[in-house]
Specification:
- The structure holds two protein chains of two kinds.
- By secondary structure, chain A is of the alpha+beta class.
- Chain A has two helices and six strands.
- Chain A has helices spanning 18-28, 111-114; strands spanning 37-38, 46-47, 51-58, 65-72, 90-92, 99-101.
- In chain A, the strands form three sheets. A two-stranded antiparallel ribbon of chain A has the order 1-2. In chain A, strands 3-4 form a two-stranded antiparallel ribbon.
- In chain A, strand 5 (90-92) and strand 6 (99-101) form a beta hairpin.
- The longest helix of chain A is centred in the N-terminal third of the chain and has 11 residues, at 18-28.
- Chain A is globular.
- By secondary structure, chain B is an alpha/beta fold.
- Chain B is 23% helix and 15% strand.
- Chain B is built from 25 helices and 35 strands.
- In chain B, strand 6 (117-121), helix 3 and strand 7 form a beta-alpha-beta unit.
- In chain B, helix 6 runs antiparallel to helix 9, helix 9 packs across helix 10 (354-370) and helix 19 packs antiparallel against helix 20 (755-764).
- Chain B is globular.
- The mean pLDDT of chain B is 96.
- The chains are: A alpha+beta, B alpha/beta.
- At the A-B interface, helix 1, strand 1, strand 2 and strand 4 of A face strand 3, helix 5, helix 22 and strand 35 of B.
Chain lengths: 129, 970
């Protein structure tokens, strides 16, 4: 079976967030329905992104590393978000291994984002920076 | 649900794809905009574009939310009768009414005293046009944002190697083996650098970042070397010390291509001390460096004309010429200078261990020496020598504001350019490479006016508003040696202020020093917020009145596309378009998008119609030029010469019949010529057919060593990139600076500085780089204010533009002050606590965030995020104003009183570069019970007439259906 995957080279990720908004603009007018924003111009705006970049530091000055970590769906070979879905909205395509959510079946229970493994489908908290 | 992987939505609605140029930042990437039913479906990078090769950044991908932003202005607005300035009380007026108001006011000023009109612009990309309007009007009071951006980088490098980073040159990462980035440089320019950096790293290149903070590009550096802010010059001088001591410099390069071996008069008692010893020869009048100088020949042990075939000169030693003049080679003077700059000395200043400095120097020197590149490209130098190959020493550097925004930045950047020269990396593969129209003579030819008589009623300015002084006599001063310009550029206070000092324009106009003005026109410059220093007080100056109850700055016109903080202070608001709604030319006359291998320029062509009554500012300028009868804009009978801006771009020529205009591509009647040729009526269409850019690739033999490449220089002269084909010898030693120093010492036959400035000019116009602590560090009590405070621009935002953007503001909704935990511990507060940041002039309250990625003597924040309440189409409760803050409130635009004067700009004394990275602060916890909101706060700005009605709590963007649903008027 074909298994498509997204490869991200963290050695050259500078945390520019291009993938975050590019994904949103590409998908917001697409078949999956709009990626909505709540309080877009007010206090505490939040919205749906399929991808976020989070920034972490490791080590103590001056031996500090700064990591930018794009957090998008990895289209896992064995996706933990699929079996937990009570309505079958989360599914894995057989022909190419891509994991999708059918918004006509999704009831917003967030089970898929509760698991121990990183899940990108539900709007995650924004990065610390 | 349709499965998006199996079925595209591209057959929904009426689909169009149009190409233009991005303007979400100043990078100018090529973009493809897909429209569905006339609304933007998505914006992609244009894969065929030479600059971004298809890449697009977070900002570029969020252009949709800028286009449909609720902050957009759509109507010309006039401050209501009786309403106070700053209260956002406006009435809508027609463009005709607006033009009549401006025309009446400006024609009167022009007939009486044109300098009472001041035009300052922000990060616009049309300075060739705005500067031309100022010159034609006759006012010297014009500049763009360069004075507070990175003018030190432009001036420091152009006065040394004839070119500089960003638009005019950059690191050749395709071939470099070692790349050193010094200071924050993420935003100039971004996509091309990101692409190059990734390829460089994947090829195994080594990347060293020298920076007080580890974010952005520094995150992927192989080594991070933290440094104290403002001490880069000390580090570079110590590296230079070590390179010279170890003999790790490119001797051959220095002799042939720089003034290192040229003999300098070394006798402090003489008036020509420190100048090159020149012999008599016929010299054509021109702004190049004539070659009537001397070397000391090793074999003959005697003076000899430079570049004598077969001669090998000394780089070191001291000699007596035949006429008894004591001389030294310039290189010897550099060696003398750096002798005291040991790694141990620099370790103390920079915080970098001496061993690390030594290792960096060795690494640079050894990679340059031992990993040479040789390209089989034949070329001929200006002295007629043929070369079979081009050699490269693969060490590349990049630097921008991190070095520039300090008051010692000019000399630090001179030191960097000299380091790059010592390593033999200028316009060579793997090092630094120029981009057309650079290299240019050192300094370039255009000069500012040189006396008050250059400003005359109803007459264009005699000289360029901005130019490149090469001697004291080029300064723009009156008979007392004092400034003629409002911002005091090109005066003895800031002699080489080649981009002006916009950052002092408002303070000077308010104080009436050197004089009062009548009308100030600001274009996309947020001077009531993030583009000013001492912002809280600048806002007061804008509303301050004299004893007659009149505003001290009588009339303020603001042209902008968005409801910025500055718009609130306008008397007249002119609504500009977005980048997707207008024509633009990124011109060879200005700052084009050239590549290393040849000139490139580009255009914008509208992809959607303008909203409301928005009018591109270019059209406003053409209209005003025509109405005011400025010579370049009208025919001999006084009638209008250009229909509109596109017509102007096609038909304007720098002089009648010159064949040089704003765009270089498809010139000639049928578009058959390039760079030079008759106006082509179909030029815009031809750009459109070619993805909105024009690219000319130079023959390989013209692509390197361009300072001294005969073929290139003659080609450049023939196509008016430069006026001369003379060699552009690198100024390792700057005779230009020495001329100003001699004037300060009373040894110059021409102009001399006023007494109060003599010491300042003498000290700072050193022909060799030197290290001195930033001015503010010497003038404030650094025990009371022990910390440096910096700002950086987040990669997902540009200037103040993007808090209005519903998507980008979710990435950066408010900013923190980043503090090293040890520093915070010493000040007694914890991660996330509310704290005060206090400088000698003001204080701000904000939230702290711990970070191990900042050196303990520095605190920093993201700029551009903190906003005034109610501005930029945001709710007054938005995080940007309640939790976000602006550091500019604590940065002074003037120095404390000192010998040079009571109101000296807080700027580099050579270039007038705003020294906003020099600010010193102390930090302490806010008291219990203080409001958990940032300070200062300002009365919320009101929404303006013509802005969209309040948007709902939920927003769902679907192209083709959005505007109707959100009730956005066309």
């Amino acid at each position: 079976m074909t298994q498509l995957a997204l490869v991200i080279d963290l050695n050259v990720c500078v945390g520019c967030h291009a993938c975050v908004t590019s994904c949103k603009e590409w998908n917001t007018s697409g078949w999956a329905g709009p990626l909505t924003d709540q309080r877009p111009y007010d206090a505490d705006p939040t919205g749906v992104f399929f991808n976020r970049v989070q920034t972490y530091e490791a080590g103590v000055f001056p031996n500090t590393e700064t990591y930018h970590f794009p957090k998008s769906c990895l289209h896992c070979e064995d996706p933990p978000c699929v079996p937990v879905c009570p309505t079958g909205a989360s599914y894995k395509r057989e022909d190419n291994g891509v994991v999708l959510v059918d918004y006509d079946k999704c009831i917003g229970c967030k089970y898929c984002s509760c698991g121990p493994v990183l899940t990108a489908f539900v709007s995650s908290t924004s990065s610390r920076r | 649900m349709q499965d998006p992987t199996s079925r595209s939505d591209s057959d929904q609605g009426r689909v169009e794809v149009k190409e233009t140029t991005c303007y979400m930042c100043a990078c100018r990437c090529g973009i493809r905009v897909t429209l569905r039913d006339g609304e933007i479906r998505h914006i992609e990078g244009n894969p065929d574009h030479p600059l971004n090769k298809g890449a697009i950044c977070a900002k570029g991908s969020s252009g949709i939310m800028k286009q449909y932003s609720p902050a957009r202005l759509t109507k010309p607005l006039l401050r209501k009768q009786g309403a106070e300035r700053g209260s956002s009380e406006f009435e809508e007026i027609s463009w005709e009414h607006a033009f009549e108001l401006i025309e009446g006011r400006l024609s009167k000023i022009r007939a009486e005293d044109p300098k009472k009109f001041a035009l300052f612009t922000g990060r616009d990309q049309m300075q060739a046009l705005t500067g031309m309007l100022a010159k034609q009007f006759g006012t010297p009071n014009y500049s763009a944002h360069g004075g507070f951006c990175s003018v030190n980088m432009a001036a420091g490098m152009i006065y040394t190697i004839g070119g500089s980073f960003w638009e005019f040159g950059g690191p050749d990462l395709d071939r470099a083996k070692l790349f050193i980035m010094i200071g924050t440089a993420e935003d100039h320019h971004s996509n091309p650098l990101k692409i190059a950096l990734a390829d460089f790293k994947r090829r195994g290149g080594r990347f060293i970042s020298i920076n007080p903070i580890r974010t952005g590009y520094s995150a992927i550096a192989d080594e991070w070397v933290p440094i104290k802010p403002g001490t880069d010059g000390a580090l570079i001088m110590a590296i230079t010390h070590e390179l010279i001591k170890q003999g790790l410099y490119d001797r051959d390069f220095l002799i042939k291509y720089t003034n290192s071996a040229e003999l300098v008069v070394d006798d402090p008692s003489r008036d020509d001390h420190g100048l090159f010893r020149r012999f008599e020869m016929h010299i054509e009048e021109g702004c190049f460096d004539p070659e009537n100088k001397l070397w000391w020949d090793i074999d003959l042990d005697h003076e000899i004309s430079t570049h004598t075939p077969g001669s090998d000169p000394r780089l070191m030693g001291e000699f007596k010429l035949e006429d008894g003049t004591p001389v030294k080679p310039a290189f010897q003077l550099l060696e003398d200078r750096v002798e005291e700059y040991t790694p141990e000395w620099a370790a103390h200043i920079t915080g970098i261990p001496a061993d690390t400095i030594r290792r960096l120097a060795h690494e640079m020197g050894v990679v340059a020496r031992d990993q040479k590149i040789e390209l089989p490209i034949q070329w001929t130098d200006t002295w007629g020598n043929d070369h079979d190959s081009v050699i490269g020493n693969p060490v590349a550097f990049h630097s921008m504001r991190g070095l520039a925004a300090h008051s010692n930045g000019f000399q630090s950047i001179r030191a960097l350019a000299i380091l790059m020269t010592l390593l033999g990396t200028i316009d060579r593969p793997g090092g630094f490479r120029h981009k057309a129209p650079f290299p240019r003579p050192i300094p370039p030819c255009p000069k500012p006016p040189n006396g008050p008589e250059a400003v005359q009623p109803n007459t264009p300015l005699d000289g360029m508003p901005l130019g490149w002084p090469s001697k004291p006599d080029d300064l723009f001063v009156d008979e007392d040696g004092e400034a003629v310009r409002l911002d005091k550029a090109f005066s003895w206070e800031y002699p080489l202020s080649v981009h002006g000092l916009m950052h002092n324009a408002i303070t000077n106009a308010w104080r009436g020093d050197p004089y009062k003005i009548d009308t100030l026109l600001l274009f996309m410059a947020n001077m009531a917020w993030n583009s000013s220093m001492n912002t809280e007080n600048v806002r007061k100056m804008l509303t301050d009145k004299d004893e007659d109850g009149e505003y001290k700055i009588p009339f303020l016109i603001v042209a902008d596309a968005f409801q910025s903080e500055t718009v609130a202070f306008a008397d007249l608001v002119l609504p500009d378009t977005t980048y997707l709604e207008r024509h633009d030319a990124m011109s060879m006359l200005d700052r084009p998008i050239s590549e290393f291998d040849g000139p490139v320029d580009s255009v914008r062509i509208p992809v959607v119609p303008p909203r409301g009554d928005c009018k591109p500012f270019q059209e406003v300028l053409i209209e005003l030029g025509s109405r005011l009868g400025l010579p370049a804009f009208v025919k001999e009978d006084g009638s209008r010469k250009f229909r509109d801006y596109p017509d102007f771009v096609v038909n304007y020529e720098t002089s009648p019949g010159s064949g040089i205009g704003f765009l270089a591509g498809w010139r000639g009647k049928g578009g058959e010529k390039f760079l030079k040729g008759d106006p082509n009526p179909r030029q815009w269409e031809m750009y459109k057919e070619n993805g909105c850019f024009y690219r000319y690739e130079l023959p390989k033999s013209y692509q390197y060593m361009r300072n001294w490449n005969r073929g290139y220089l003659e080609w450049a002269r023939a196509h008016s990139m430069t006026r001369y084909a003379e060699p552009i010898t690198i100024h390792l030693y700057s005779e230009v600076l020495q001329r100003f120093r001699l004037a300060a010492q009373g040894k110059w036959p021409g102009r001399i500085p006023p007494q109060r400035l003599r010491r300042r000019v003498e000290e700072n116009f050193d022909p060799l780089p030197f290290y001195s602590a930033p001015l503010e560090h010497k003038l404030v009590d650094t025990h009371t204010y022990p910390l440096n405070a910096l700002t950086q621009r987040p990669m997902a935002m540009y200037h103040s533009w993007d808090s209005q953007n519903a998507w980008l503001r979710q990435i950066h909704t408010h900013n923190y002050l980043f503090v090293n935990p040890r520093t915070a511990e010493a000040s007694g507060f914890g991660d996330g606590d509310w704290i005060w940041v206090e400088s000698p002039i003001n204080k701000v309250r904000c939230m702290a965030r711990f970070s191990e990625a900042v050196e303990p003597g520095t605190v920093w924040t993201w700029n551009a995020i903190g906003k005034a309440a109610g501005s930029w189409g945001l709710s007054p409760k938005a995080n940007e104003s309640q939790k976000g803050f602006l550091l500019n409130h604590v940065i002074s635009e003037e120095l404390p009183p000192c010998e040079a004067g009571d109101h000296m700009s807080n700027s580099d004394p050579v270039t007038g570069q705003a020294a906003w990275f020099d600010v010193r602060v102390r930090i302490y916890p806010a008291e219990a019970g203080e409001p958990e909101v940032t300070s200062p706060q300002f009365k919320p700005q009101k929404k303006l007439p013509g802005q969209d009605p309040k948007r709902g709590k939920w927003q769902a963007f679907v192209a083709g259906a959005f505007r109707k649903k959100a009730k956005i008027q066309d």
